[in-house]
Write the structure tokens for this entry.
Amino acid sequence: MNHIRAEGIVIRSYDYGEGHRIVLIYTKDMGKIRASARGSRKIRSKFASFLEPLTGNRFMLYRRGDNPVYTLTGVEVFNPYSALREDMRRFGYGSLMLEIVDILCCDEDPDIELYFLLLEALTDLETGPSASTAWLFLFRALKLAGYRLNMFRCCECGVKPPGGAVFSPPAGGIICSSCSPQEPFWSVSEETLADIKNLGPGAELKSGSEKAIGNIITKYIKYQLDREIRSTGFLEIFKDNVLSGTDRDTKQLLGR
């Protein structure tokens, strides 16, 4: 029997059997793992409050033989990230970040750089502008996974576009007007390109740009990995707040 201590962030959990849960955790040293939390759905469970998504814990685990699922024997919180659950918008962006980690990472394939990038982004998300923090994390996570997006220079000629450009998933970035192919790719405004360049914990996105950035990333992940990002459906609740502008290129990107 292999006893292990692991630090990690809860991605999600789902019901298993009578009164139990399987918890998906992104850990510092082991990558993405699954653990069985026996009895955690019961009212008096000592684990229940520690297994919510976006909770940072230190887990005590064991595994028998080659069983792919660990058994949870103990847990202590090192950061509950309470502010993310008190604000549904921040919770939505945090869920988006966890979903991207889940999509990009294979089981038990650790990436300590991505782990600390996630911790840093969750801390920034508690206090700073939520949209800018989340989308910056997604760009960085894609780069670490080998799917770097080139949004500053034309993927064909290497020239920085003087204005807007088109986004090409096959090219992995933008293409300037001189190199633009005949296929109907998605226009990206100069304003959106500038906002991507300025993404960061202290940055506020201009009206329309957030939705455009989100669609760039979701289209790219769909093309590269054939995966849909479900968290964006939750974020649609806030679309009236993030898409209040009349930017023509952004609306074209959204298919409006």
The chain has two domains: 2-80, 84-254. Strands lie at 2-16, 20-27, 31-37, 56-63, 69-79, 165-168, 173-175, 186-188. Residues 240-256 have pLDDT under 50 and may be disordered. The two ends are 57 Å apart (CA to CA).
